Amino acid sequence: MPEISQPAPDFTLPRNGGDDVTLSDLRGAPVVLFFYPRDDTPGCTKESIGFSDHRQAFADAGAQVFGVSKDSIASHDKFAAKHDLSVPLLSDEHGTVCEDYGVWTEKKMYGKTFMGIERTTVLIDADGKVAKVWNKVKVPGHVEEVLAAVRAL
């Protein structure tokens, strides 16, 4: 997990709708990365809709928002179309970025242990340094909390 005030690990990932996104190319403005386990599951859908609903408010605050999961671009395209999502979704199919950000962790559910993405949001400042990290995110109220942190930068 990157630490506060340390440089955020750089990456280039494909996004839904085409093109690649390179984190270092976005310097000069804050970036929000929300890591989520899977497309089209209840919590991930609510979180993605929340960030999409507030996309303009983030833009007005000067920030860009990206969702990141290990789902494929085809899955992201279907998910975005089904729920009319406006926030770009990045595909980390190989899991490298998830590992670099420390969100690929051991999880337990129904007595079974498995590896998966821990719902995490990372706020990166205009200089490319980690400004804030939210671990084990609970969806209700989260988007508004992140937006307030962006506005406070």
UniProtKB/TrEMBL annotation:
Q: Where is the Thioredoxin domain?
A: 2-153
Summarize the subunit comment.
Monomer.
Which species is the source of this protein?
Answer: Sulfitobacter sabulilitoris
The GO terms describing molecular function are: thioredoxin peroxidase activity
Catalytic site positions: 44 (cysteine sulfenic acid (-soh) intermediate)
Under Pfam families, the record lists: AhpC-TSA
- Stated name of the protein: thioredoxin-dependent peroxiredoxin
Reactions performed catalytically: a hydroperoxide + [thioredoxin]-dithiol = an alcohol + [thioredoxin]-disulfide + H2O
Protein role: Thiol-specific peroxidase that catalyzes the reduction of hydrogen peroxide and organic hydroperoxides to water and alcohols, respectively. Plays a role in cell protection against oxidative stress by detoxifying peroxides and as sensor of hydrogen peroxide-mediated signaling events.
Gene3D superfamilies in alphabetical order:
Glutaredoxin (3.40.30.10)
Source superkingdom: Bacteria
- Per UniProt, which keywords does this protein have? Antioxidant, Disulfide bond, Oxidoreductase, Peroxidase, Redox-active center
